[in-house]
Amino acid sequence: KTFFHKIGRALCTAARAVGHFFAETWRDLAPLVGMQLKEKADFSFLQTKKKTITKIVFTLLGFLAVTALCYGFFMMASALRIFSLTGAIPVTVLSIVFAFMFLLSTVSCTAGLVNMLYFGQDNHMLLPLPVTAPKLYVSKLLVFYLYELKRNASFMIPLFLAYGLISKLPFVFYPWMLLMFLFVSLLPVLAGALLSIPAMWVYQQMRQYRWLQFVIYAAAIGLIVWGLRALILMIPEDLNLISQWKEVAASFQDALQWFETRFRPLYLLTLLVVGRRIGGFDFQLVFGPDASMPGTWQIFGVMAALLAALFLLGYLLAKPLFFRMASTPF
Known about the structure:
Elements: H1 2-40, H2 49-79, H3 91-118, H4 123-126, H5 133-166, H6 173-184, H7 186-208, H8 210-233, H9 245-262, H10 264-274, E1 276-279, E2 282-284, H11 296-317, H12 319-326
Antiparallel strand pairs: 1-2
Helix pairs in contact: 1-5, 2-5, 3-5, 3-7, 3-10, 5-6, 5-7, 5-12, 6-10, 7-8, 7-11, 10-11
């Protein structure tokens, strides 16, 4: 009894110490995050109650409109049996959209963090504050994390919500989806923080050598044109959707299978959010591993390890670039 009493008291002490640490850290971070948000976001709607209500109403209407559009797309695809003969919408369809938006978010976060970390106009105001450089660095990541949550709430969450409604997923899916997006939204931010290091070097080279800027833009335009041309050439000249629907449907299935194989990490990330199709229209939100697929908690564990690795690498590698300006508390 005395032994377990000591163990319990030690755990309580440790829990209080951890809670105190996070409370102290957040007490320093909150003002920094608030100052940076005020510089980058428009909070004028909070000045009056009428403006606040108007903003909330229009935000909700926009959320519902996007959800309705996504639901309409899924309903049309189901009615026309575009992606499967049963009318079900494969998770892969959702994963393709998620992958595209994830890549766009990563590029956006990378470009934004290059400007905010290394060329931010507010650095001269933040550096004299009585905070350590690591907390200043984390505060900038938190600002982008909040923006990423806002961006996901504007499109990705309505998309997943519409998918849940059309697939008749159980109610537990919706709080689970929101919880998973708290973690998923961190990935493009932390990846962007790491990628901002080589991106900053490229940006400096582009400023120094104008011809390099032209070459990069020309290469990007050429790559887009090449991709569009390749897609157009894939369309048969004598295409007849009605008479050749079986061949078209088979092509869709091959494309979905190709995506699952080539973009497996993003596909597994989508499964983490929506669950796995077991048979027919049935889903298991939390599923176990088998010979061809890891389980929910395995995917979550890999994601958590990846988040920790990205944060640590970004922190260590950004040190000579950002911490050089803010490594000493003022």
